[in-house]
Amino acid sequence: MTTRFILIRTSHAGNVGAAARAMKVMGFDDLVLVAPRWDDVLRRDETIQRASGATEVLDKARIVGTLDEALDGVSYLCATAMTPRDFGPPTFTPREHLPALAQSGQGVAFLFGSERFGMSNEDVYRCHAAISIPTHPDYGSLNLAAALQLVAYEWRLALGGFGPPKEPGGAPLADAQAVAGMLAHWEQALVDVGFLDPKAPKKLMPRLNQLFNRAQLTPEEIHILRGVAKAMSQAASGLRR
């Protein structure tokens, strides 16, 4: 599952380095710069200094001329915009939108505009959603790297976080697609046993989704939960005979 951070028309080299540092802290390394002010921004002293050791993110980063070139391999775009645009995509806070998006298994790109002008309407209109970070109503100006850090943190949480350090040889975590499949299995089982009314589901499944995200399930645990769901459906089927 691709996670990409795209900086559009960045004007300050230091922000590129700080963005790389923010990404590394959250375990991401796919950075693309669209038409930055400096052609050599990835090698400038200020960039490297502000990266504070996240040089592998800078080494892997790409510079492209257009947003189209930056989108290869991703299918869902999130704008980061302070205010909604007329006729634009729906606007959500990160915590409203990202948990469900994490379960979709899609390649996701988070787009950040220039420090001076933000994102253009044209770029925002191309996105599936706009992510707006809640800030004080009288002062909502966030530094580019600080905004990226917040979004990267919320996205990492939505993906399940890092959790406590595992013992050597500990089981890997199940991926988002496996969790989504298990949730779909549970949804059907809960309908079968009469616990979930599909005509009035309320927020049961989103809450279960968040619960399982917090649990940081392993593939073996996914298998167990699917077994429970299967048994529930079979028991319900027997009762209906």
Main beta sheet: strand number and arrangement? 7 strands, parallel
Helix content: 40-55%
Mean pLDDT across all amino acids: 87
Radius of gyration: 21 Å
Question: Could you name the key traits of this structure?
Answer:
241 residues, Helicase, Ruva Protein, domain 3, seven-stranded parallel sheet, 7 strands
Task: Give an account of the 3D structure.
This protein has helices at residues 13-25, 45-51, 55-60, 67-70, 94-104, 121-125, 144-158, 176-192, 204-215, 219-240; strands at residues 3-8, 31-34, 62-64, 76-80, 91-92, 108-112, 129-131. By secondary structure, it is α/β, with parallel strands linked by helices. The mean pLDDT is 87. It is elongated. The longest helix is centred in the C-terminal third of the chain and has 22 residues, at 219-240. α1 runs parallel beside α2 (45-51), α1 packs parallel to α7 and α5 (94-104) crosses α7 (144-158). A seven-stranded parallel sheet has the order 3-2-1-6-4-7-5. The protein has ten helices and seven strands.
